[in-house]
Structures are given as structure tokens and as C-alpha cells.
Amino acid sequence: MKDKIEQLKKLRKDALLGGGKNKIDQQHEKGKLTARERIELLVDDGSFQEIDMLVKHRSTDFGIDKNRISGDGVITGYATINKRPIAIFSQDFTVFGGSLSETHAEKICKIMDMALKLGIPIIGLNDSGGARIQEGVVSLGGYAEIFLRNTLASGVVPQVSAVLGPCAGGAVYSPAITDFIFMVKGTSHMFVTGPNVVKTVTHEEVSFEDLGGAEAHSSKSGVAHFVFDSEVEVLENIKKLIEYIPLNWKDLPPEHNYDFSNDAIIPKLDTIIPDNPNKPYDMKEIINLIVDNNEFLEVHENYAQNIIIGFGRIGGQSVGVIANQPSVLAGVLDINSSVKGARFIRFCDAFNIPLLVLEDVPGFLPGTEQEWNGIIRHGSKLLFAFCEATVPKVTVITRKAYGGAYDVMNSKHIRGDFNFAWPSAEIAVMGPKGAVEIIFKKEIANAKNPTEKLEQLLKEYLEKFANPYIAAERGYIDEVIIPQETKQRLISAFQILKTKVDLNPRKKHSNIPL
């Protein structure tokens, strides 16, 4: 037995080296961590339990059978993060460039299947050169097996992807199906076709970074939800994200202790809205004042910045925040912000995370570019997501709520549970000036002084309609509140909504306007 134990120890030692010291040194020279170092930094000390450490590929073509390395380019297992269980795989670039083979895919599929049975999140650390060319269609089949599991796991357990190196071709679609994608500036790349193919087909010359780097995907394409300067920051922020979300769709998000005896009155909120209704302000200031400990984990920070999404806590409860941003495009809704908001809402609804909506929206962005690119279809995704969501939903209208955008942003009519408004709220079909010019078109045209008449009628209209009280009279607004009372009311609302039950009609699945 002693000899056999020694043999096993040697096999384990060899497996821990991956592609060998030289390959590990090359990984470090690129400013990248190894697959095992990433796992160690992410999970609780001593919690990682590896499975399939001794798996090797079984391909024989092109002489590849002479190089069979234990683990076959991916490390899989389960662990805990902040004492909560997760399943994890980490691709090892030191072994065949992290390329995906039949057995590599089988390892990933096995850990994903286990995660579904156990009801725990799946975290994928991607660093791969793509399909292993020597295995041909077998490696392509391996990708498809992973894609299927990503799809079946969607909405069942949270799925988080970190792209920590190259991720090209078909490989990009596994992270794309998952709930959140993290990237590192300078070392992460995602693209369906690389710069050389792009040049051949379209004659465009573009660098790896400009085509599929972290900056491009965080600000232009919206593929990446989080971007950081280093792998260590990525791993630290995955830990933060996991703290806001449940283990699975039947579970509730972790709740933190909160001292309810604290005075939740925030006087500073009374001074944030400018007297001039056309002057912008930063909605993030309101968010940071409202959430517990001023801690807000923003998602898609650099993309479609006219809407803000992210996670915070209200009275210890995890909430998903969706807020218009008046300091960017006046907070209008457009194609990108609608899609950004809709997907986040659907994630929160799938995983029992209550929604807090902070509304200051003048409408949808007009123009041919928006219309021809499908603002009707894309804008309806946001509406659909809010309508479909059955989690607790609370709205606070801080200023403007105009036109169809008022309906879309979780109005009472689409099952908003509590809808509050500040005294500064303006709830109307459209902006006051445009409304007056339409309603009193003839009267203004026939006046001796049209400009003076317009100003007079505008003043009368503002006094009568540019406020939240008509909506409150009809019960569309549950309460007009003093801004400093906001957190107090939100804590009360989310506490009482803990027992909320709301159901959608029975169906196979809905057909969101994709």
C-alpha cells in the first residue's frame, strides 16, 4: 500500500504543475495568474475540493497522444465563498493553451451537472485558445454540450463568467449565456472572429484590444458587465457579487443584520433635486445615500450610462436597483439602456431579488437612428421585464415621469407594489412646453404676443399638472413623501413585501420581444 500511496502522491504533484514550470513562468510574465492561483484567491481557504484531477485526453491524431497531461487544461471542483457553496471550473492556459478537448468539455459538463443537482452557483474562469484543433469536430461537440448546460441552468442557478485571457470563436457563447461577465483591462479578449479574419473578410485593420478587449466590451458592445484593472480585483468583485445573490431560484438572497432602531432620515436628500427642472443631477448620489453603508455594486457601469443598474441593500435586504440617470442624455430611455435594464430585471426576478426603481425619465430618445434600429422592439423588452416580474417592486419618482416611459418604469399599472413620489415629481403625458404648444396651438397663434401668451399658459399648466398630486388622487401614487423620509419608507416597504406572492398565468414560457 505504501508504494501505491507514493505513486498517487506523485500523480497529484505532477497534476498540480499543469503544463510545467516554464509554462507557469510564461503565464506570470504576461501578468496573468495560473488557473490554481485564481481559485485559491477566489474561494475560502482550504475549501476547494477538486474532481477529475487525473483526467487525460484520449486523442491519438497528429502525435498528440505523446503529450497527455493530467487535468487536460481545466481544473474543476466545488468550494465555498464566504461560507456559501459554489461549483467552479478554471481553464489552465499552461496546458495546450487551455484549448477545449472532448475530456476538457466532459469535466466542465460534469461540474455543471453537479451544480444543478445541488442548486449552487456556477463560476467559470475562462482562459483558452479555443477548440483543440487536433480533435476536430469532437471539440466542437464539447462546446455544444457546455452551451446546452448553460441554457438549461439559466434561471435555475446563477452563472458567473470571468474572461481572464483569450476567449474566441464559439467559446464566447458560453460566457454570453451566463448571467454576468467579468473582464480584465489589457489581458482579456473576446471575439467571434479575430483581427486577421476581420482583415481578410472586411479589409478592416483592428487590434485585439480594440476589437474585443475589456474596454470595447464594457462601453461599446455591452457584453462585459464588470471590468477591472487586474485579475485580483476581478476575483474580489466576484466575491462581492455572490454576497448579493441566492444559491438558486428557490433560495433567497443572503440578508445582513440591520439595526432598525437607527434613524433612517437622510436630510441631504431634500437638497439634491435642482429648482430648475431642466438642470441635471447625479442619481448615483441618491443611490449611495439610500443603500445600507453607502455600498452599491454597479453593473454595466460604462455601458448605456443613461440608466443605472446594480445591487445594494435596504434594511439588510439585497435589492436590485434600476435608476434613470439625468446627468447622461437627461435620463432618456433608448435601445441600449432598455436592453441593459431588461436583462438585469429578469435576472433579479429569476432569483428572488426585490427591485428598487428610482425614476426621472423624460421619455424615449427620438430620432431616425433609434426608430430604424428598433426602439419599439427593444423598449418593449424593458416594459415586458417589469410586467413579468413577480418579485417585490418599489418605485420612487424623484422628478420627471413623462409619457410611455412613466408606464414602463414600474408604474402602479404594471404591478408596482409601492409607488412613491417626491414633491418635485412631474407626472404627465409629455413635457410642459410641448404639451402647452399642442393643447393651445390656436390660442397661442392668434394672440397679440404669442411668446407672452405661451409663458402665461405654461405657468398655468405647470401649476396644474407638473406635480404628483393628480396621480396621487387617483391612487397611481401610493404616497407623496418628503425626500428625507425615502429610506425609512423603503425599509418598511421591503419588509412588508417579504411575504408577497404574485403569479403569472401558467404557460410553457413567455415570448419576450427579442
List the helices and strands and how they pair.
Elements: H1 2-16, H2 21-29, H3 35-42, E1 49-51, E2 74-81, E3 84-91, H4 102-118, E4 122-126, H5 137-153, E5 159-163, E6 166-168, H6 173-177, E7 180-184, E8 189-191, H7 195-202, H8 208-212, H9 214-221, E9 226-228, H10 231-244, H11 283-290, E10 297-299, E11 307-314, E12 317-324, H12 335-350, E13 355-361, H13 368-372, H14 375-388, E14 393-402, H15 403-408, E15 418-421, E16 426-428, H16 432-439, H17 441-446, H18 450-465, H19 469-473, E17 479-480, H20 486-496
Parallel strand pairs: 3-4, 4-5, 5-7, 6-8, 7-9, 12-13, 13-14, 14-15, 14-16, 15-17
Antiparallel strand pairs: 1-2, 2-3, 10-11, 11-12
Helix pairs in contact: 4-5, 12-14, 16-18
> For this structure, what is the CATH class of the largest domain?
Alpha Beta
How large is the radius of gyration?
26 Å
- Give the rounded overall mean pLDDT: 93
CATH topology of the largest domain: 2-enoyl-CoA Hydratase, Chain A, domain 1
What report would you give on this structure?
The protein is of the alpha/beta class and 514 residues long. It has 20 helices and 17 strands. The protein folds into three domains: 2-244, 2-enoyl-CoA Hydratase, Chain A, domain 1; 267-425 and 467-498, 2-enoyl-CoA Hydratase, Chain A, domain 1 (Alpha-Beta Complex), CATH 3.90.226.10; 431-466, no CATH class. The strands form three sheets. Strands 10, 11, 12, 13, 14, 15, 16 and 17 form an eight-stranded mixed sheet that branches. Strands 1-2-3-4-5-7-9 form a seven-stranded mixed sheet, sandwiched between helices. The longest helix is centred in the N-terminal third of the chain and has 17 residues, at 102-118. It is elongated.
